[in-house]
């Protein structure tokens, strides 16, 4: 060690040694032993363990918040499994929080476990969280405390020091362009080797002396390195070091970041250190251990002291010997689990290639770069696709730590943990999907828990599309992934209650009273039903009724109705009483029927598209509200594709020729069809319910929208399509409406919008054109007649409409358009005049071939021909 470093050693009366000892003798700790480390690294962790074994200090001091001393004994609990983190949060503002992560290969964790195993006192000596959290700005960044100027001096502007990465500076000095590679070669990949037992104490302490000297030179050149708050932290650590020396003697060891070693070895006075701490803000805090993940240790997660490869470092620390061979075996196991063919020969060749690359590159051990290159070449056949899986699962890793039950926790966290165990829902860092059958009590309870957590802002689970295509309401799928930050969200939600149910109920009631939009309250009502919050429903329903009575905007009403309709169907599966919702939903539907016609006029393209989506939502909602009831007009004579006899409805045709005066009224009477059939008129009032006749009124409204030329084209087309799908419009009527919409007198842009509304935006629109050649011929005739100067105006609309069709539908439509109209008597001569599978005539041979299979599937009986035989 240089004379310069030795002259800077004293902190108090007795000089401090920087792990420097004579090469011929074991160290006698008559001064603190400063072990500078990188916070997460297997080489540093092994070196710390070796140094502690050699020096046998009287106490171990760790860089960490001093309030954590009471939690240190939990590190020896068998249930404690790293990675874990100390979590500190402000009591009055749980969102203001900080983490101190520790992995199995963290030098601090190794020092803590060593001290507890050897009965040596261990303490944290860094600035308390009560100060560090108070120094945080509202947006989460830390504000450096400004030093107080003497009274006789004018305040000066602080001198900003540019931020410096000490590892990068040392790597560049050594001729490396990659600081991570330099650190791995110098520290992480250095193994004690087979002769570890013959190493002296001086050998164990020498690396720390060299690193301390290097950091001293850097601090002389760069000062605080762009981290002004370090001066406050280091002053507090020096004060704690003095107190520990007074209590335990000079033979204490300090494990801290290597950057702080020169500051702890600097000669200062107690008064000077205390002056730096004068006036620091305070905030009341709580602290506990929480599980952490390797992914959150990674640098890309935003963690300031993060590393690039937590999983790789964990492997290097845990591997007793032959780390490259063991790593390649892990990689092979992962690839085999993904159904990739990887043999033992692949593993052997990959190990040889990695070692060869390390030798060619002058590295002491094959690093992550060499192993990755070898895996790509040998096991992945040069592809980066499987390599991405290895990077995610192994190099970074998905390990989730565990903490013992005795660790402090807020009451809400304890209730959540207890509920998770009861329902067998273990938090895991790796994303997984679960399918729930709500008819089972356990699965229903799991669903309620996940919805309650979502309402509290604890995003453990997200609803997902089920792997099965069952569309029943008794099935749910969820994607689950536990992130360490969710512990903070739980602490924040603790202000609402001590259990998940009571907290979710209190928050739902608060949100209901604070909501300003009707759609917010309806969405909240849906969440309450899904979460099974029966106690919150009365407050939510009262707020819903109040908002619905005051809101006259049709768009708001249309946005709110679908959520209510979905909520009503949960009563069957979740055994929830939804009677209160029925009247509100029916009232909303009635008001929509009244206010929708005038709202559909005078719209621009964007407004018409938005209202078209709302009409779709209302149509689906009314279908749910009236499910199980038969519409009055659902007569076989008027069903889709059936021949119809002249009725009163034919006397008042749908189309632009409808009386103009009908457009000036928008009342409930206007929504009642003038063409009501005798069956509709004879409805029995005694059987009336909140939704009685709602489907009929909606169908009548759709007829009026489809026939008014003042309504936007996309809405007219959608109304006609919805009527056609529900059987409220025959194919002849649909063809007539399309013919009117695509007539030569209609502007091309309006006609294109009508087509988009009729065949776009919903499944089956393309198949409708495939199977009804009259409609396809109308579209084809109109399209070929669009003038060239306006074709470019309608092309974007048509492209948007037809690009939504399935590829097979688009191909079939192209073939039909290329073939042209079918002959008038096609099919009578037995010839195939159409596209295969879509000819106008019946192919009896193909029908006969499938008939026996249908009999077996539907009836389990042989075909009639076989039975007669």
TrEMBL record:
InterPro entries: DUF5682 (IPR043737), LolB (IPR050458). Residues 642-660, 669-692 have a biased composition (Low complexity). Pfam families: DUF5682. Residues 139-160, 627-694, 818-842 are annotated as: Disordered. Residues 818-832 have a biased composition (Basic and acidic residues). PANTHER family: OUTER MEMBRANE LOLAB LIPOPROTEIN INSERTION APPARATUS (PTHR30634), PTHR30634:SF14. This is DUF5682 family protein.
């Amino acid at each position: 060690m240089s004379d310069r470093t030795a002259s800077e050693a004293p902190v108090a009366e007795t000089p401090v040694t920087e792990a420097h000892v004579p090469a011929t003798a074991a160290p006698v700790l008559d001064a603190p032993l400063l072990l500078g480390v990188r916070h997460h690294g297997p080489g540093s962790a092994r070196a710390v363990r070796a140094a502690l074994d050699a020096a046998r200090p009287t106490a171990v001091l760790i860089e960490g918040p001093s309030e954590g001393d009471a939690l240190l004994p939990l590190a020896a609990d068998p249930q404690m499994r790293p990675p874990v983190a100390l979590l500190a949060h402000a009591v009055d503002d749980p969102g203001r929080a900080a983490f101190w992560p520790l992995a199995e290969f963290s030098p601090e964790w190794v020092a803590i476990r060593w001290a507890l195993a050897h009965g040596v006192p261990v303490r944290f000596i860094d600035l308390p969280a009560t100060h560090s959290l108070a120094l945080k700005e509202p947006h989460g960044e830390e504000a450096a405390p400004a030093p107080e100027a003497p009274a006789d001096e004018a305040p000066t502007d602080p001198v900003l020091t540019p931020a410096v990465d000490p590892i990068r500076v040392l790597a560049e000095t050594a001729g490396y362009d990659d600081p991570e590679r330099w650190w791995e070669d110098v520290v992480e990949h250095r193994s004690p080797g087979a002769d570890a037992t013959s190493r002296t104490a001086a050998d164990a302490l020498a690396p720390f002396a060299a690193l301390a000297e290097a950091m001293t030179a850097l601090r002389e050149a760069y000062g605080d390195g762009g981290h002004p708050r370090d001066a406050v932290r280091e002053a507090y650590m020096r004060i704690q070091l003095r107190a520990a020396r007074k209590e335990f003697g000079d033979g204490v060891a300090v494990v801290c970041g290597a950057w702080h070693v020169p500051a702890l070895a600097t000669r200062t006075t107690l008064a000077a250190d205390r002056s730096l701490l004068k006036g620091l803000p305070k905030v009341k805090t709580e602290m506990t251990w929480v599980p952490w993940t390797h992914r959150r240790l990674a640098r890309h997660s935003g963690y300031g002291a993060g590393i690039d490869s937590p999983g790789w470092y964990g492997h290097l620390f845990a591997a007793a010997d032959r780390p490259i061979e063991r790593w390649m075996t892990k990689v092979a196991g992962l690839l085999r689990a993904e159904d990739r063919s990887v043999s033992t020969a692949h593993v052997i060749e990959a190990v040889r290639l990695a070692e060869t690359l390390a030798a060619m590159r002058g590295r002491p051990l094959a690093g992550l770069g060499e192993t990755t290159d070898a895996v790509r070449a040998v096991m992945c056949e040069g592809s980066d696709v499987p390599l991405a899986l290895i990077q995610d699962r192994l190099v970074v890793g998905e390990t989730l730590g565990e903490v013992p039950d005795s660790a402090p926790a807020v009451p809400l966290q304890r209730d959540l943990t207890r509920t998770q165990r009861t329902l067998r829902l273990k938090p895991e860092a790796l994303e997984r999907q679960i399918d729930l059958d709500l008819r089972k009590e356990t699965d229903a309870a799991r669903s309620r828990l996940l919805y309650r957590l979502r309402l509290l802002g604890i995003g453990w689970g997200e609803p997902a599309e089920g792997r099965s295509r069952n569309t029943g309401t008794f099935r749910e799928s969820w994607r689950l992934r536990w992130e360490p930050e969710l512990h903070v969200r739980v602490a924040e939600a603790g202000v609402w209650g001590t259990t998940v149910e009571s907290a979710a109920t209190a928050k739902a009631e608060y949100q209901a009273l604070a909501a300003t939009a009707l759609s917010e309250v309806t969405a909240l009502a849906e969440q309450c039903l899904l979460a099974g919050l029966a106690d919150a429903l009365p407050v939510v329903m009262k707020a819903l009724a109040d908002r619905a009575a005051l809101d006259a905007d049709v768009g708001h009403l249309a946005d709110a109705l679908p959520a209510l309709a979905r909520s009503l169907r949960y009563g069957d599966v979740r055994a929830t009483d939804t009677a209160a919702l029925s009247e509100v939903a029916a009232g909303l539907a009635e008001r929509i029927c009244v206010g929708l016609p005038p709202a559909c006029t005078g719209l621009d393209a964007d407004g018409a598209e938005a209202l078209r989506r709302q009409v779709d939502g209302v149509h689906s909602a009314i279908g749910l509200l009236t499910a199980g009831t038969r519409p009055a007009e659902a007569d076989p004579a008027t069903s889709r594709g059936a021949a119809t006899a002249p009725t009163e409805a034919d006397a008042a045709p749908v189309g632009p020729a409808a009386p103009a005066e009908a457009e000036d009224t928008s009342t409930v009477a206007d929504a009642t069809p003038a063409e009501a059939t005798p069956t509709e008129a004879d409805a029995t009032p005694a059987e009336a319910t909140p939704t009685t006749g709602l489907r009929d009124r909606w169908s009548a409204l759709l007829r009026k929208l489809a026939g008014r030329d003042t309504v936007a084209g996309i809405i007219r087309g959608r109304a006609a399509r919805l009527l056609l799908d529900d059987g409220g419009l025959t194919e002849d009527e649909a063809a007539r409406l399309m013919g009117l919409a695509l007539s030569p007198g209609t502007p091309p842009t309006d006609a294109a919008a009508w087509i988009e509304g009729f065949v776009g935006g919903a499944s089956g629109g393309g198949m409708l054109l495939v199977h009804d050649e009259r409609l396809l011929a109308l579209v084809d005739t109109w399209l070929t007649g669009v003038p060239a100067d306006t074709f470019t105006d309608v092309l974007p609309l048509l492209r948007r409409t037809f690009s939504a069709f399935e590829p097979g539908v688009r191909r079939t439509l192209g073939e039909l358009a290329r073939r042209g109209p079918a002959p008038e008597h096609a099919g009578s001569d037995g010839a195939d005049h159409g596209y295969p599978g879509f000819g106008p005539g019946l192919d009896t041979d193909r029908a006969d071939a499938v008939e026996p299979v249908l009999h077996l599937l539907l009836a389990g009986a042989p075909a009639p021909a076989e039975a007669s035989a």
